[in-house]
Design brief:
Distance between the termini: 85 Å
Shape: globular
Helix content: 40-55%
Number of helices: 14
CATH superfamily of the largest domain: Response regulator
Length: 354
């Protein structure tokens, strides 16, 4: 009798382990949190994320859920909800909407849930050194600043010449881009800290929004101090397009338009928006190239939104027991009218000449 009971108990334990193991294996749940599409780049991220999530769910090995969060508060609440049932959670891939997400990431670390940060990386000792941090996946934001400064130097910028910078938000992204830019002006362009402080004017955050960029650029030129500025570094193509749209409107005077056409040496941007590529190619329905860019060098530094698929794959590789690069930085390229045909931008619309 004892033997029979023991055998039954043993079988029950084995069966229980099998059910637990198989259950966990069949229901490995990965949550992907991105930002609601508020401009072209975040819209593309959402589209690429959905494409990857759909493919993984079709394979059936993992259950992957995609949530778009309209702001950091919504995202933080979503993280809190997920952690309530953390036993059913195998990993989180998230694009931290801003630096206030540090507290949510601390909670993820405390719960020991594997996580991948994408694009906007929150860096604290607790988060960076966490054993459950799978990877950070982002474009080379510092490299964007480096590439921009190098191209300005190539185009003849001199120490002390006026520079307008239009940043994105209060996350790590603009900080890295501006740091790469100023560090390179110092190391390769001979600038001093004092010259940088005197020469650079930085607008308020654009929020990566074309509409907000139009307002900020309009307000800035209306200050009447624009005449000495020859170099413009925008942190996103939506911002650069906002400048071009402003110039092609009645929001600014003819004097402003003349200043830009005759005095601005270069307009720098980033993110690989197809609309900017159409401008470079001279195939935009509005001839910005002919109207405002005859003497102004327009260029773009790549920041591919398809990187979100790399972030999701990093989590899958981790769950599969594979080695994952902790800091997964995607290299950048500089695109201008000479090589734009070699690159594919994201987004589409009715802005291209048929």
């Amino acid at each position: 009798m004892k033997k029979s009971v023991m055998s039954l108990l043993a079988l029950a334990v084995v069966a229980g382990c099998c059910l637990t193991s198989c259950g966990n294996g069949a229901a490995k749940t990965v949550e992907v949190l991105v930002q609601t599409a508020d401009h072209g780049w975040t819209g593309a991220v959402q589209s690429y994320a959905k494409e990857k999530v759909d493919a993984l769910n079709k394979e059936g090995k993992y259950k992957v859920n995609l949530t778009a969060c309209e702001d950091a508060t919504v995202e933080a609440n979503k993280v809190a909800d997920l952690l309530v049932n953390k036993d059913a959670l195998n990993g989180i891939v998230l694009l931290p909407i801003d630096n206030t997400m540090s507290s949510s990431l601390d909670k993820i670390v405390a719960a020991n849930v594997p996580f991948v940060q994408f694009d906007r990386v929150v860096k604290t000792d607790n988060i960076t050194n966490a054993a459950c941090r799978v990877s950070n996946v982002l474009g080379d934001n510092y490299g964007i600043g480096v590439a921009t400064a190098k191209r300005f130097i190539q185009k003849g910028i001199k120490p002390g010449e006026k520079i307008l910078i239009m940043p994105g938000d209060n996350s790590s992204v603009p900080v890295s881009r501006t740091s790469g830019f100023t560090d390179t002006l110092k190391s390769e362009g001979g600038w001093t800290d004092a010259q940088l402080k005197d020469a650079i004017y930085t607008t308020d955050y654009t929020g990566w929004s074309r509409t907000k960029s139009i307002d900020l650029f309009t307000n800035w030129v209306n200050l009447g101090t624009y005449a000495d500025y020859k170099w413009i570094f925008t942190h996103d193509d939506e911002i650069a397009m906002g400048i071009l749209e402003t110039l092609n409107s009645t929001r600014v005077t003819d004097d402003v338009k003349t200043w830009f056409k005759e005095s601005v040496t270069s307009l720098a941007s980033s993110s690989s928006l197809d609309e900017i590529y159409a401008v470079m190619e001279g195939k935009h329905t509005t001839d910005y190239k002919g109207l405002f860019l005859q003497h102004c060098y327009l260029f773009d530094v790549t920041y591919d939104p398809a990187m979100i698929q790399t972030a999701i794959q990093d989590m899958i590789d981790h769950l599969d027991g594979k080695t994952v690069t902790k800091d997964h930085v995607i290299a950048v390229n500089t695109v201008d009218a000479d090589n734009v045909s070699q690159f594919k931008g994201f987004g589409s619309g009715n802005y291209r000449v048929a």
